[in-house]
Specification:
Elements: E1 2-11, E2 14-24, E3 29-33, H1 40-47, E4 55-60, H2 71-74, E5 75-78, H3 90-100, H4 106-114, H5 119-122, H6 131-143, E6 149-153, H7 161-176, E7 180-184, H8 188-194, E8 197-202, E9 205-211, H9 212-217, E10 221-225, H10 228-237, E11 242-244, E12 249-252, H11 256-265, E13 270-275, H12 280-288, H13 294-305
Parallel strand pairs: 3-7, 3-8, 5-6, 6-7
Antiparallel strand pairs: 1-2, 1-4, 8-9, 10-12, 10-13, 11-12
Bound molecules: adenosine-5'-triphosphate.
Length: 306
Amino acid sequence: MITVESLSKSYGSHAAVDDVTFIAAPGRVTGFLGPNGAGKSTTMRVMVGLTPPSSGDVHVLGRRFEDLPDPGREVGVLLDASAQHAGRTGREILTIAALTMGLPRSRVDAMLERVSLTPDEAGRRVRNYSLGMRQRLGIATALLGDPEVLILDEPANGLDPAGIRWMRDLLRGFADDGGTVLLSSHLLHEIEVIADDLVVIGNGRIVAQGTKDELLASAGTLVRAADGTALAAALQAAGITATPSSGGAVLAESDLTTVGTVAFDAGIALLELRAADGARLEEMFLSLTADTQRESVQHRTEGAAA
Ligand SMILES: Nc1ncnc2c1ncn2[C@@H]1O[C@H](COP(=O)(O)OP(=O)(O)OP(=O)(O)O)[C@@H](O)[C@H]1O
């Protein structure tokens, strides 16, 4: 469990994190999203004691990180895969970490195998690693102490498609075994597939949080009938904003139960009824963070200048 309570962090007059409160619960993967500069890394750095908060607090497993009796074995952290010592081999990095944590050397081989780094790769200096290999090594380091909590900043960065799927399965398995996973990512599809809960931050403030299902349900329902026009009309008559799309599909701004009930009451047989997907998380993300996106800032500036 990670508990963030009224956390603020300012650099000079700039509020990088502004009164942020959320929980990452055990047994769940919590996706932490936000545009560049939104405050994700700062929040994670405070979590692991690398940056002091200006106010508020973060508890990991019920304590501040610095008060954890054995942090390496309680919390696995990957904040910057490129921050590893470039002159050491992957095996050396893991071995030093294992010895520091009082773990047997056998754990190093187990972790190398778990992240699919070959003995040959483990013997190379990190400066010769690809970004994806550095991520795998970083994840191996995070998992080394068999922690209960994982805090990962952009762990999928640089991974190939098979690597992304591997990481997805790994994090899912970790959470299903009761672990807590907090991960930030700009790969919205990945977050959409893996996360149970979402925390969206923009300009240092939380703009949305909740279960993925809740947040995406509020983004709409995709419903399809043979006669899409009649379906859209029935939904609109019930006061639901409904936008017809191709093939009889309608995007309705309501939840599954309400949309299904309206169609049933109107005697319309449905061919499909589900939470709208595809670009949904992306759309939700872009609309929630529109005021904090530098691109829309540019638009506004251009508009103001015109
Ligand atoms: N040490 C620092 N000194 C001054 N400003 C900082 C410092 N660290 C972060 N900031 C500022 O705080 C804000 C939040 O940065 P942060 O790195 O937390 O964002 P982020 O959400 O992780 O962004 P990204 O997605 O680009 O990694 C940014 O405006 C950044 O410039």
